Amino acid sequence: MKYLDEYRDGNLAQKLAAEIHGVTTKPWTIMEVCGGQTHAIVKFGIDQLLPKQITLIHGPGCPVCVTPLEVIDQALEIAARPEVIFTSFGDMLRVPGSTADLLSVKANGGDVRIVYSPLDAVKLAVANPTREVVFFGVGFETTAPATAMAVFQATQKGLDNFSMLISHVLVPPAIEALMSSPNCRVQAFLAAGHVCAVMGYEEYFPLVKKYRVPIVVTGFEPLDILHGILMTVQQLESGRAEVENQYARAVTRAGNRPAQDLIGKVFQVVPRKWRGIGEIPQSGLGLRAAYAAFDASRKFKLTVHCIDESAECIAGLVLQGMKKPNDCPAFGARCTPEHPFGATMVSSEGACAAYYRYRRRDVKERTVA
User: Fold this and answer.
1) What would the pLDDT profile of 117-142 be if each residue is shown by its tens digit?
2) CATH number at residue 188
3) Degrees to nearest 5, angle at CA 353 with 347 and 356
4) pTM for this entry
């Protein structure tokens, strides 16, 4: 793995790209699962270095983007309550619900605060015993250990004014759902390195065996991604389907066992609806019965209403890898980060946001032509 000492060396990038060109003889379609990888691909023009036979498509790798509309509306309802301090990571504040977003609730007097860790929300609950403190727990397996630790600490401290609105999702069931779709055209995956740093990559072996698709655990720097693509194409060209680990400097096969144990102690696997995709069995994390007192949806007796997405927004197709952001007629015109139709335009890991920031000029030139 000689490319791991440097991450943004242009000469090494050209060398890797040349190697990819050298081994590619057939058309291949590869999906990167992580939104962070999507942004790196678009920002650094990685896809433009590749042979024309290789198509990169963007998967449902943005946890903010796949948080269901109904859960966003629940967050808005809780955050508007005068007794509540509602805490969240910053990238959730602009995600549109059916009528508003958390930033609008804050502007109208709701006590909505950005935190950098769920443990900050626990501290707020300790410091404000007369207020209800709620944390919006969103993310893949990467952020689940910190959420679990916050629940564990709240239990140890005996906090009865702390709760969480949980919308954690899991990557392997999403890959399974994509591969089982009759419309799937993915032939290989770049797996998210940070998820695998926590969970390892044992869960990918059954998927590779069942669907005969290569899965390469990949990092986030430009050379990581090019190296992951090279490893993937080498498998495809040779007719192999294996799990390989490009991101060996951060990921082991077993992952972080203490973090996994903590997740298993606090959470159980549950069905989860993914925005733009639908319900995927066993694809989410929910609090175990022993920690049900910290479930904000139960604590505030919230109801779930099925809400239709904007008919003009194609974010669901983008998340499934069936369309690219600039295939949308509203992209960059009626749909912008200031006035988004969907979460993929406002999340820091959203594919539409990446294209708006780094490829908008291409869309404008095409439109003018």
Assistant:
1) 999 999 999 999 999 999 999 999 99
2) 3.40.50.11740
3) 160
4) 0.91
